Amino acid sequence: MSNFVVSARKYRPNRFDDVVGQQHVSQTLKNALRNDHLAHAFLFCGPRGVGKTTCARILAKVLNCQNPTDDFEPCNKCASCLAFSENSSFNITELDAASNNSVEHIRALIEQVRFQPQQGKYKVFIIDEVHMLSQQAFNAFLKTLEEPPSYAIFILATTEKHKIIPTILSRCQIFDFRRIQVQDMVAHLEHICAEEQIEADADALNIIAQKADGALRDSLSIFDRIVSFSGKHIRYEDVITNLNILDYDYYFQVVDALLMEDVSKMLLLFDDILRKGFDADLFINGLAEHLRNLLVCKDPETIQLLESSDNLKQRYATQANLSPASFILTALDLCNDCDINYKMARNKRLHVEMCLIKMTYINRAVKAAQTGVQAPASTEKKTADLSETTKQADVSASKPVEKKEEVPAPETEVEIVEEKKEEPVTELKIPEEEVVSTTKVPKFKKSSFSVKKIDPMAMMEEIRQDANKVEEALPVHLENVQKAWAEYTAKTSDSVKSIMKAVELKVEGDVITGLVGSQLAQNTIKQESGLMEHLRQFFKKTTLTLQLEIDKSKVKEPPKRAKQLTPKEKYLKMADENALVHEIRKRFDLRPDED
After folding, report:
1. Rounded distance, CA 294 to CA 363, Å?
2. Are 123 and 117 in contact (CB under 8 A)?
3. What's domain 7-176's superfamily in CATH?
4. pTM above 0.85, yes or no
């Protein structure tokens, strides 16, 4: 079996210039070495796999390098650098705090600080995952970290800075490492491919970098796995197959089907995706990411935010030009609602399919909404036509009408008043009663199947009157408020019901004040989104407001904790109670532990 070395170890940087994506840290350290302003304690914090321990090892190597370069990089040729590369240097001590986190381990480290370096100027102590140290270990480490010997330098590394106590943070010079950008990661992978004589597609390396989520070590691990799968030629298809990633071509096809309002094609694509073993929630999140990329490509200035290859950027830009902004924003909103409600849906496939069907008719809904805005203009035209018809009827009514014998119409004859209109469907007619009242018009017998005429203007007036009808609003006083509060409380769960029943209500104008007994009760009632709507509908007032205040008289103060005594204070207290304690300390020459 060959001695295979993973890429993360084989291509681990040995110089500051080789560190990927952390130029702000490496340049600051080199300037500190150049100006001789080097601190005695450093804290490197940031996500996993971004180069914290690597930078710590490079700094330790430079400090003891016998022939550093003009740019303060290690020479990697002197005895100190070679000993460090072979892990045989006595001047550098690495401690894994994840497995050595007790007080005994820190005390052993402090013992090593007392001894000066055998070779070189500095003795460097690198503590990885320092946030895993116990509280007692941190306290034991404080004094040494604050005032170490001139030859001792501490470099701490952690992924969880918030777990380190403030007293440690105040004694260190802190460097925040960034997530590595996709472009920097792709460039590093291309360099490794050139060294290993591996051919790789640009899209394949881009997918590996995106999957790593800012961690270079993760990208190198994925790279090794893909090389084992596909050999010396890495194709995009091999990457998405091995990493179980849905091909972006599906998203382009789905959006094309949505724009063409082709429901059948869209549902068949979704079925094909499910048959390949992909979860529906992952698909809907991927579609939302695709729509976000389309929105980014709508503006040439923001296309640089797209983390993908140049060929894929061009394809996104082409589809973005065909997709209206209203379509993209509405589809993103539907994807967000679908993702939020996905876990609560019983038929998850139908839930996603309904979301996709709604997206299919977005453009049609937008056009219908735009057409509806122009409706008042057509209404004005109908009103003008109606006025013109009324004028013509008045003129005809003013002329004398010769008396003629009334002749009954045939039984099958239907009365048609305005037959010569060009648009009979949209024609508005005068009610027959109004014409008869102004003049004598021969009466014709209507057939049994005659159609009753409808006056649109009368219907509109009736609808307007119905809309203006306002029910008499109840007065906002305490009794009615308590009644509305009790109605809503009856619909809530048992836990919320007990909290709402304990609320003391007060009313002042349109402001309802509720006194609660704790912060928990206040937060619980605030989460009841339907309460305010219920109160406003009950009193028919949109200006009604609700204020929740904590009644301090009902809040119970927590019991005061007893003061924790130091060892010296404990001794003095025991000595006051019993004089023999002081005598025993003198006889055996004992000393109480310091703080």
Report:
1. 16
2. yes
3. P-loop containing nucleotide triphosphate hydrolases (3.40.50.300)
4. no
